[in-house]
Amino acid sequence: MSRAVHPGRPSERTLLTDPVRYPEAAQSGVRTKRAFLLLLLTLLLPGAAQVVAGDRKLGRRALRVTFTMWLLVIAGVVLAGLNRQLVVSLLANEWFSLLLIAVLVALAVGWALLFINTLRLIRPPLLDRGMRPAVAATLALLMLVTSGSLGYGAYLLNVGRNTFGNIFQAGPAFDPVDGRYNFLLMGGDAGEDRTGRRPDSISVISVDARSGAAVTFSIPRDFQNAPFSEDSPLWEVWPDGYNCGNDCIINSLYPVVSQDYADLYPDSQDPGAEAMMDAASGILGIEVQAYILVDMAGFEQLIDAMGGITIDAGGWVPITSAEIPGSDPKRYYPPSAWIAPGVQTLNGYEALWYARSREYATDYSRIQRQQCVQAAMIAQLDPATVLSRFQEIAAAGTQIVETDIPRDQLGSFVDLAIKAKNHDVGRLTIGAPDFGDPGDFFSTYPDIPLVHQRVQETLAAASEDAEAAPAGTLELNRAGLIEALPAQAVTDEITVEYLHQLAVNQDWTTLESLLADNGECTPA
Question: Which PANTHER family does the annotation name (predicted)?
Answer without folding.
Answer: POLYISOPRENYL-TEICHOIC ACID--PEPTIDOGLYCAN TEICHOIC ACID TRANSFERASE TAGU
